[in-house]
Design goal:
Layout: H1 10-26, E1 30-35, H2 43-58, E2 62-67, H3 70-79, E3 86-87, E4 90-91, H4 95-117, E5 124-128, E6 135-139, E7 143-144, E8 147-148, E9 155-160, H5 163-170, E10 174-178, E11 180-182, E12 189-191, H6 194-204, E13 209-214, E14 232-234, H7 235-241, H8 249-260, E15 266-271, H9 277-283, E16 290-293
Parallel strand pairs: 1-2, 1-13, 2-10, 5-10, 13-15, 14-16
Antiparallel strand pairs: 3-4, 6-9, 7-8, 11-12, 15-16
């Protein structure tokens, strides 16, 4: 064979080499990934997500997956003849609806995700925020038109205990966490926004990165007039933009803000509709989506507490 002939697999080698500095940088670091949107419904995207997460684990990172399940919860509530009502962007959660939420998140969405991950080896372990008191919450009462409103079993996080998750990570496992919490007195179970839960866990675990999968390319610079995506912004720049954001993006971006203001090095919003978006974001020079970074150390402002809006 001629020495000058190029091997057809050479581009693969170049791709792997491009990943090398990123592999070195992220090795041994914890990354919290919020799984949601289309990636949670489309079969091919689900399979690609599972491959990405297992790849991270074998590349020496410590992934933690946090998930909600809005579409699946709505479908099950419909089946049972329970109405889905939303106030201030949050699902009004009656005790009957909470039973459905718990069943769908822990018994359906989480089980499926654990199964997809475990096709690649005995890695994933499912749990909810109730387990080992990982997430403790109190009732969240949003203010609408100047009044505090009761929207049922919707939780605001008051404490995180990372012991069980850390033990799983130390054992080489991939924790898959459903965004359900218990009250401190153990009397109530709460439905917690999964974006908020992922951000709180990322901060408590001293994660290097929080990644939030969405159904958009990232944070748009001037939507709807332009589809240019902001590739990078600081916590203070993001805080100024928060009042202008669409309601669906607010908990995601508030979560990113909370994470980087509480020790997480980067928070990224990426397009879950793109196969292998996680690998593209972490292991390529271009990256995709929007990355939020902390302000310079001179900024001492600690930012809003979780649950504030």
């Amino acid at each position: 064979m001629s020495a000058a002939r190029k091997h057809t697999a050479l581009p693969k080698a170049q791709t792997l080499i491009e990943a090398l500095p990123w592999l070195t940088r992220h090795h041994g670091k914890t990354v919290v990934i919020k799984f949601g949107g289309n990636a949670m419904i489309d079969e091919e995207l689900k399979a690609a997500f599972a491959q990405d997460v297992v790849f991270l684990r074998h590349a020496g990172l410590k992934p933690v997956v946090v998930h909600g399940g809005g579409p699946q919860i709505s479908a099950q509530l419909d089946k049972q003849g329970l109405v889905s009502e939303f106030k201030a962007g949050l699902r009004v959660t009656t005790p009957e609806a909470m039973d459905v939420v718990r069943m769908v998140l822990a018994g359906q969405v989480q089980r499926e995700l654990v199964g997809l991950l475990n096709q690649h080896g005995p890695l994933a372990v499912g749990m909810t925020g109730e387990d080992a008191h990982t997430i403790t919450a109190t009732q969240h009462r949003p203010t609408i038109d100047g009044e505090s409103v009761d929207i049922g079993r919707v939780g605001e996080i008051t404490a995180i205990d990372t012991g069980a998750i850390q033990a799983l990570l130390d054992d080489g496992r991939i924790p898959v966490v459903s965004s359900i919490a218990r009250s401190a007195d153990d009397h109530h179970v709460y439905n917690v926004n999964a974006d908020t839960a992922a951000a709180a866990l990322a901060a408590a675990l001293n994660a290097e990165t929080l990644m939030v999968l969405t159904d958009v390319e990232g944070l748009y610079e001037d939507w709807p007039h332009s589809d240019d995506v902001i590739s990078r912004l600081t916590a203070s720049e993001l805080e100024k933009l928060l009042p202008e954001l669409s309601s669906g993006m607010v908990p995601k971006m508030q979560g990113c803000l909370h994470a980087v203001r509480n020790g997480v090095e980067t928070a990224r919003v990426i397009d879950g509709r793109v196969q292998h978006s996680i690998l593209l974001e972490i292991f390529t020079d271009e990256g995709i989506g929007t990355m939020v970074v902390p302000d310079a150390p001179i900024d001492v402002h600690t930012g809003p507490e979780l649950g504030e809006s």
